Amino acid sequence: MERYKWNIKRLDTQSLNKDHVLLGLVGNAEVDTPMSKSNGSTSPFSRRKDTRLVKVGKIEIGSGRSIAIQSMAATKTQNIEATVNQIKLLTEAGADIIRVAVDSKADVVALAEIRRRTGDLNPTISVDLQENYRLAAEVAPYVDKIRYNPGHLHHHEKSKPIKDKVAFIAKVAAAHNIALRIGVNCGSVDPQKLLKFGDDDIGAMVESADEHCAMLENLGFTRYVVSLKDSDWRKVVEGNRRFSEMRPNVPLHLGVTEAGMPPEGIIKTRIAFEQLISEGIGDTIRVSLTLPFEDKGQEILAGREILRDIAAGRFRSVPPNFDEGLNIISCPSCSRVENEAFIELAQDIKVITKFAEKEDLTIAVMGCRVNGPGETDDADIGLWCGPTGVNLKKGEELVGHFPYTEIIPRVKTLLDETISEKS
Fold first, then answer.
1. pLDDT value, residue 396
2. Chain centroid offset of residue 422 CA
3. What pLDDT is recorded for position 283?
């Protein structure tokens, strides 16, 4: 199969003009300037100053500060050497915040060693908690921020009220002087919200975020940011607009989750960011791309390129018929991915489906058990990857579980059948 190599030009920060700096759009790992807090910009766009300031380690988010750029380590956390290398790679690319996933006590032990080995880099580290919210107490000494997903709080200690779990996380964060992110994702929204809102998954996402903000603030905890993400850039724009109107003081983390492979993944993300950031919405960003592990720094470079263009009022045109025809979504390579074969699989799917590019179909390629099952349900054809094989789905129906060596012809056959049925 054809293999891809993407090259995103490294930004020359010396070429940033006055408006770039005054707007505070460029993250502070690349350009460190107090002018980003000024009100003197002559650009047609302006940064919002009414969001509260949230400190994440040495990084400041909100209140008109520079937009911080984030990424996530792609390697397994327990692979300490590889994860340390990821943090070095992302730091060199200019990441302001680097996220690491923790799903077990063994991950916590590894995280402690990773923090020790990267001490000379002084990275700002966020941890991504999965379903075991109680791990917050164990990871807190080693991180600057904890991200939890409201939808995942339902899967652990199901008899305990959600508000009690949120209270536990907030108490830990306050005791260790760290920040929180309420990370809501359309593909894993609170089950009760889905029942209430039905097809309005944006409404479910926004209400879930709003409720968790209220829980934290009722506890007196305000050092948090919120993210509302989806693989559809339209839902990202609409969800963040709605939430921003409801809670204009809450800093927002922007991202199109499962944006996919470059260049399409960058285009989807750019469209969402151009609309939101030009309206003053957004305080920190992540460009989520399906990339080989050694290329993860390209997420940071793509984010800086987008911010630089927005700061200059330079909006890119969208290719004709961009949203028509075959839509391939794939999650970013991160430490939840079962193995790197997922990345090659996504690239191969793009190649073997080229003949169907004009078909009105969605194919979802997911790399892990966390997002895979739920986030393939809305696709015509879904693949979510396990350690040794791939679960192939047609809509919500499981077709079967196949080895990586057999999955491509299975997908081709299923695609042919699906096209035939639709026509």
1. 86
2. 32
3. 97
Q: What is the pLDDT of residue 309?
A: 93
For 98-123, letters b (16+ CB in 10 Å) and e give bbbbbbeeebbebbeebbeebeeeeb
Identify the architecture of domain 337-422 in CATH.
2-Layer Sandwich (3.30)
How confident is the model over 259-287, as pLDDT tens digits? 888 888 999 999 999 999 999 999 999 99
Per the prediction, the chain carries an average pLDDT of 85
Q: Where are the domains of the chain?
A: 13-311, 337-422
Q: What confidence tier does 337 reach under pLDDT thresholds 50, 70, 90?
A: low
**Cβ atoms 35, 28 nearer than 8 A:** no
Please give the structure tokens belonging to residue 147.
């991200």
Please determine, for residue 176, whether its predicted confidence score (pLDDT) is greater than 90. yes
The fold of 13-311 is TIM Barrel (3.20.20)
In which band, very low, low, confident or very high, does the pLDDT at 38 lie, cut at 50, 70 and 90?
very low
Long-range CB pairs of 193-198, under 8 A, 24+ apart, other chains included? none
Is residue 76 pLDDT above 80, yes or no? yes
How far apart are alpha carbons 335 and 150 in whole angstroms? 20
CB 140 within 8 A of CB 149: no
Structure tokens at 359: 């078909």
Q: How far apart are CA 60 and CA 91, in angstroms?
A: 17
pLDDT digits (tens, 9 = 90+) for 144-161: 999 999 998 988 888 999
Q: Would you state the pLDDT for residue 43?
A: 39
